[in-house]
Design a protein that fits this description.
Layout: H1 2-25, H2 45-55, E1 60-63, H3 70-77, E2 80-91, H4 97-117, E3 125-135, E4 142-146, H5 152-156, H6 158-170, E5 179-190, E6 212-220, E7 230-238, E8 247-249, E9 252-255, E10 260-263, E11 268-271, E12 277-280
Parallel strand pairs: 7-9
Antiparallel strand pairs: 1-12, 2-5, 3-4, 3-5, 6-7, 8-11, 9-10, 11-12
Helix pairs in contact: 1-2
Length: 283
């Protein structure tokens, strides 16, 4: 019992941390979580999707295919990318355009060489440059895009573009304050042929018999004042056997190799043709 109580305490702390993090990137930026879907991923994410979403009044979940290895999948389907940065701290006024152009040209050449070593054809390579700028005395910077072939006119216009970027990001700027460079960098991207992900076979609302692998008692905590905590006999489904259009009503457990999705009482999951599970929760 002590172990169970300790585990429950750890989960409550983790839950509160996740909810606070989502509020930071939504409510504190003027976004209403109720206008969005929550995408739980990772091996444990789909187990806690409903409690987190209901705490934030998010109406639905989108559980992607293979949530436990979603990051690895994203790496496989993403373009190749190299980020190169060199530190050069100094006042913009003291930086000659020729020196800045030399730094950018050298970094651009290195980025292009890395893509060539990756066997990326020239017509699929993109190398973009930037300089990190800040007001003198600040401890944070803003990246300002630079052309690959930097000339005196472009370099002279960088401070004005920094002021505009600072105003857009923070709501204020001081055009009379001196600015300084912190670092120069390039992002070299090699475009790949994006693989086509599999599409689920069409099915009806009722999952095929082979999708249900059994049942087991699962304890569900109360998520609202009207919920009654306790054990429920929850059917267990194999996600790999679900077809597009299949509906699974909670309480239920949907298992797969990389994760387990828990449907709370009142949840309703629909298998999408893309392989995602769209989970609607009670209001």
């Amino acid at each position: 019992l002590d172990v169970v109580a300790a585990a429950a305490g750890i989960l409550r702390v983790a839950h509160a941390t996740i909810v606070r993090g989502i509020r930071v990137v939504s409510v504190e930026r003027g976004l209403d979580p109720r206008d969005f879907a929550l995408v739980p991923f990772g091996g444990a994410g789909p187990m806690h999707g409903t409690p987190v979403a209901r705490d934030l009044a998010i109406p639905r979940l989108l559980v992607p295919p293979t949530p436990g290895i979603l990051c690895a999948l994203g790496q496989l389907v993403s373009d190749l990318r190299h980020d190169l940065v060199e530190t050069h701290v100094g006042a913009h006024a003291d930086f000659a355009a020729e020196r800045a152009a030399g730094i950018v040209a050298a970094l651009t050449a290195r980025g292009d060489a890395l893509l060539a070593a990756d066997t990326v054809p020239p017509d699929r390579r993109t190398v973009s440059a930037f300089v990190d700028m800040r007001y003198v005395g600040q401890s944070y910077e803003l990246p300002i895009a630079l052309p690959a072939r930097l000339d005196e006119v472009d370099w002279a216009g960088v401070p004005a573009r920094f002021h505009d970027a600072h105003r857009a990001r923070f709501g204020h700027a001081d055009a009379s304050a001196p600015v300084e460079c912190v670092s120069f960098g390039v992002t070299a991207v090699g475009r790949i042929d994006t693989p086509v992900l599999p599409v689920l076979e069409e099915g009806g609302a009722v999952p095929p018999p082979e999708a249900r692998t059994g049942s087991r008692p699962v304890y569900f905590e109360a998520l609202s004042r009207t919920d009654i905590p306790g054990f429920h006999d929850a059917p267990v489904f194999a996600r790999a056997a679900l077809r597009a259009g299949n509906v699974v009503e909670g309480p239920a457990v949907i298992e797969e190799v990389s994760a387990t999705t828990i449907l709370y009482p009142g949840d309703r999951a629909v298998a999408d043709a893309s392989g995602s599970l769209i989970v609607e929760m009670p209001a």
